[in-house]
Specification:
By secondary structure, this protein is an alpha+beta fold. The chain has 3 domains: about 160 residues, PAS domain (Beta-Lactamase, 2-Layer Sandwich), CATH 3.30.450.20; about 70 residues, no CATH class; about 140 residues, Histidine kinase-like ATPase, C-terminal domain (Heat Shock Protein 90), CATH 3.30.565. It is about 50% helix and about 15% strand. The chain has a 5-stranded antiparallel β-sheet with strand order 4-3-7-6-5. A 5-stranded mixed β-sheet has the order 9-11-12-14-13.
């Protein structure tokens, strides 16, 4: 875990980014400036050499006159020297004084190869830029066939580049400091809503009260969206906790009834001895308790299970195998319908629907089970001949421990809740319309074997 706050990390990252950007820009500017200054100096030296060559060709006697070879380069003097074909000095500018321009490769190239050339050199301790150009061999005077050398100090260029480098460094530091300050201020302002959310979350964590909500954000930005999402999550947690409380309360109530009867019958047997009717009641209460516990365990397993992707199943064949020999059921499953899931869970879901139809349908009535595929949807439907559920009752049919006002016989009210949990775990849904209960699941196509999520119908 980082020892620095998010505000400090953002400020540091901003400052480093600005420094890198300014440094890279400075390097590019210095390189461009160095090239421009060098090109300007080279052009000046070449222009002065051309002027001296013209003077040597037109009036060679004027080369030795005072001031004939003088010229300026910015704040300093241009250095000019004329040599003959053997490299002996014919004339030179007064700015050289007693110094002599170095005989470098550029000079030898101008004399021997008759080609102009540039070269960096030094005159004493001063760095210079040297240009050597050949003179015409047919020109009159002693300089015929020689060369003209022009040179200029590069100290001014280096001073300009050094000043530019210092300016880049100072600019980078100033920009980094300003960027870090602005980033700190902006980050502090941007993180203020997050701080409020964090404080609200800590308060909810201390109290454990999921009914509280985080303070809404002032702006409709990402932080506002986060606050809305977290509040929606808290609402979902609150509903889940309330549903859990109701479930525990309903389960306790449902378990208490058979347990109370068992205790009463056991006490009667202990006082009066065995009685066939009492023993039958004990057996019935035990069976009811076992069925209720089985339903509770099944529902708990469905809630905790991962999405079902176990094997490919033909639900039409599953229905034929499960309901074979049941005289009260009319099965309509003409063609294979394949889904991916857990066979045992799907068998339980279909059996729960058949048991529900048998329990709530009219005595001796027929039960119709149909399995069909509609596009990417596999549908398993169970219908009885009873009046079915009204719209208000249908809205609660799959809730846990819910039993309709016309329900007869004993039951836990968990059978349809288990059906819905199994369907949803398989990526599908469960629905009811009148006396027809249906499970919709993603079907496997013969060509692509693709899967999808089937919305509730």
């Amino acid at each position: 875990m980082s020892r620095f706050t998010l505000r400090a990390r953002v400020a540091a990252a901003t400052a480093v980014s600005i420094v890198l950007a300014v440094v890279l820009l400075g390097i590019a500017v210095v390189a461009l400036l160095d090239r421009q200054l060098g090109d300007a100096l080279d052009r000046t030296l070449r222009t002065r050499a051309v002027e001296v060559a013209r003077l040597a060709a037109a009036s060679p006697r004027l080369l030795g006159q005072p001031g004939a070879l003088e010229g300026r380069l910015g704040g300093s003097q241009l250095l000019v020297e004329v040599v003959d074909r053997r490299g002996r000095i014919v004339a030179r500018s007064g700015a050289l004084g007693g110094r002599v321009l170095p005989e470098r490769r550029a000079v030898r190239r101008a004399l021997s190869d008759r080609r102009p050339a540039y070269e960096d050199a030094a005159l004493g301790e001063d760095p210079i830029r040297l240009y050597a150009a050949p003179l015409g061999e047919l020109s009159p005077g002693p300089a015929a066939g020689g060369a003209v050398l022009t040179a200029g100090s590069t100290s001014d260029n280096e001073e300009t580049l050094d000043a530019t480098r210092r300016l880049v460094v100072l600019g980078a530091l100033a920009a980094a400091a300003l960027a870090a300050l602005l980033a700190t201020l902006l980050t502090r302002r941007a993180l203020r809503p997050l701080s409020r959310l964090s404080s609200g979350a800590r308060a909810i964590e201390r109290t454990g009260d999921a009914s509280q909500r985080l303070p809404p954000a002032e702006a409709r930005d990402e932080v506002g969206e986060l606050a809305g999402t977290l509040n929606a999550m808290l609402g979902s947690l609150e509903r889940a906790r309330e549903s859990e409380r109701r479930f525990v309360g309903d389960a306790s109530h449902e378990l208490r009834t058979p347990l109370t009867a068992l205790r009463g019958n056991a006490a009667y047997v202990a006082r009066h001895g065995g009685d066939r009717a009492v023993l039958a009641d004990i057996e019935a209460d035990a069976a009811r308790l076992a069925a209720l516990l089985d339903d509770l365990l099944a529902l708990a397993r469905e809630d905790a299970a991962a999405p079902a992707r176990a094997e490919e199943i033909d639900v039409a064949g599953l229905a034929r195998d499960l309901l074979a020999g049941d005289a009260d059921v009319d099965l309509e499953a003409p063609v294979p319908v394949r889904v991916r899931g857990e066979r045992a869970a799907l068998e339980r879901a279909l059996l729960n629907l058949v048991l529900n139809a048998r329990k709530h349908g009219p005595p001796g009535g027929r039960i119709t089970v149909s399995v069909a595929q509609e596009g990417a949807c596999a549908r398993m439907a169970v219908a009885d001949e009873g009046p079915g559920l009204g719209p208000d009752e249908a809205a609660h049919a799959f809730e846990r421990f819910w039993r309709g006002p016309r329900a007869s016989g004993e039951g836990s009210g968990l059978g349809l809740a288990i059906v819905r949990s199994i369907a949803e775990r398989h990526g599908g849904s469960a629905s009811v319309s009148g006396a027809r209960f249906e499970i919709a699941l993603p079907a496997l196509r013969e060509s692509s074997r693709t899967e999808g999520t089937i919305p509730a119908s």
